[in-house]
Amino acid sequence: MKRALDLFVASCVLLCLCIPLLALAWRVRSKLGSPVFFTQTRPGLNGKPFKMVKFRSMTDARGGDGQVLSAAQARFHAAHCARRTRLGRGLSGFMPIFSSIVLLFGMTIFSALFTDSQSRLFIWLFGQPVRAYHLSELRRFMGLGSASLQRELNRLATAGLVDSQTVGNMRRFQANPKSPVFAELVALTRKTLGTVPILRDALLPLMPDLLAAWVYGSVAKQTDTARSDIDIMLVGNNLLLSNVLACLVPAEAQLGRKINPSCYSPEEFERRRAEPDSFVNRVLSQPILALIGDAHEPARAG
């Protein structure tokens, strides 16, 4: 019954949006050329990948020096163009209704609980809770205006979720470890916005050879510091360390930490599991954060 209702509502929404979507497709085609759509593999339920399709927002053009344009230069500012048209202004009035429909029929956990600006802020404050940030740092990382950012920070500080200290003539902000919900916010942020989804996305190109992957060590136990490395264990067929490291380079830059992968074939993993005092068994006896598959049954996950 629920699936039938979901399909009915989705069909009605698509019917209402078909003309605006066609107009947007024409706009992207005229500005960026073909293809109009961009496809990307993303992690779904239990780490199972699915293919996401969205409109292109970047151009492949190069500058006069032959170098690839920066992200700011290459981005197609469709929202800015749309606001200058009657169609765009009409769509902006429809967005609150569309947002309610999306919220009702499914969206990410964090988006359902927090606003976009709060989500951006939580990535840094609770994704790396041992680190303190100056206001200027957070503005640069988040891309928010000063007034909006200070409003969110003051709200969190008033609630006791964030510590605010004045150092010289600058304020520093850090997640408050004495808050009664500190551990829960750190865990929620890492599972929905931080370490887990970033690493999961980075490892997707290794599938289907990659059968299982998980984070272990200080990050999984929530005892890490700002300088702690991120330790991950991977089980799969024909996993080359060079390929794994290449996939993890963007994640290292995004998380600001070094990532140390340990790779095992399914056969070697099972041999280590059979040794009572092996490194693999010591890892599995402690807290882990699942990225892909089942850490205890990697062969079955494939």
How would you portray this structure in words?
The protein is α+β, with helices and mostly antiparallel strands. The chain is 51% helix and 17% strand. The chain is built from 15 helices and nine strands. The protein has helices at residues 2-32, 71-74, 78-83, 86-105, 109-113, 116-125, 135-142, 146-158, 182-192, 195-203, 218-221, 241-255, 266-273, 279-284, 298-301, and strands at residues 37-43, 49-55, 133-134, 162-167, 170-175, 210-216, 230-236, 259-264, 289-292. The strands form three sheets. Strands 8-7-6-9 form a four-stranded mixed β-sheet. A three-stranded antiparallel β-sheet has the order 3-5-4. A hairpin with a 2-residue loop joins strand 4 (162-167) and strand 5. Helix 10 packs antiparallel against helix 12. The longest helix has 31 residues, at 2-32. The model is unreliable at 67-84 and 91-107 (pLDDT under 50).
